[in-house]
Amino acid sequence: MNAILTGPLALASRRLHCWRYMSAVALHNNNLMPSRRQQNHNLQITRHMAGHNKWSKIKRKKAANDVARARDHTKAARAIEVASRSCQGDMADISLQSAVAAARAVQLPKETIEKAIERGANPNAKDELSVIRRYDGMVPGSNGKVAVIIETLTENKNRTAANVRHLVTKIGGELLPTGANDWLFEHVGVVCVSRNKHTNEEENATGEPVDEDELLECALDGGATDVDFGADEDEDTSNAEGDNIDNPIVIKCETSGLLRLVQSLKTDGYVSSQFDNQWLVRSDDNKVILNEEGSEKFEKFLDSMDEDLDVTNVYHNATFPEEVS
After folding, report:
1. Do 295 and 320 touch, CB atoms closer than 8 A?
2. Phi, psi of 95 (to 5 degrees)
3. Model confidence pLDDT, tens digit, residues 254-287
4. How far apart are CA 122 and CA 102, in angstroms?
């Protein structure tokens, strides 16, 4: 899961803004009264054709070796510690919940998670305070420049700024003033819901399949603005291996309503595997399609960013060749 996934969600993400072949479908839920539909006319329900599930493209590549896995664990533990420090270890805090969910997605051991929460809640006076820093930039693409938003978590902003600048300029790009790429992206809350329900969030979601109509009603009550069921309606993904992780239902909401949505889903027995606020491309018209050469070059750039322990998320508007139908 990206990302990365996460906020910490992008720790489990690789390609954060994929090509989406999507069609809006009318809300035709017989379980909802007409007044409910009228009151929530802004809710968008989307589906993707087979092979173009958004989350399968959003999620970062899983760790290919022990070094990469250890790096993901280090980033996840640090994110938990920082979130815990800001709320004194209060698990009711949405940032801490999000960090823990992202850590579970990269299989950080339960004991390590608990220790990170404890360290954050009871920091040593000598510990450096880590802060979130954002960097906007443009890097070369095949047919124009690719916009990037880079999020970092660091206790040494000078070191991190120098490293980010080096990696961006190395590929021939440039850093821009913070906020320069806002017009290309929208900041939204994103919740990934397992396709199976389960009463115990600590376990894998192996319960009964989610009823889409019931989930829609719950999402409406929780303030959702977009529900993406991923696979095409006629495609059977129920037996797909790893379906709950690689092919979740993605729900979007206002950033201020993320906690409300997560709580609403949890109350009704839905498993929110990951959730946080992300920068998503506003429109397909804002995307830059890469050719094979450009894709390979940009992949290396993302890999170099991922190798930096201070970098938590890289959002971009690039479309890779295999994502174009």
Report:
1. yes
2. -65, -40
3. 999 999 999 999 999 898 889 999 999 999 899 9
4. 22
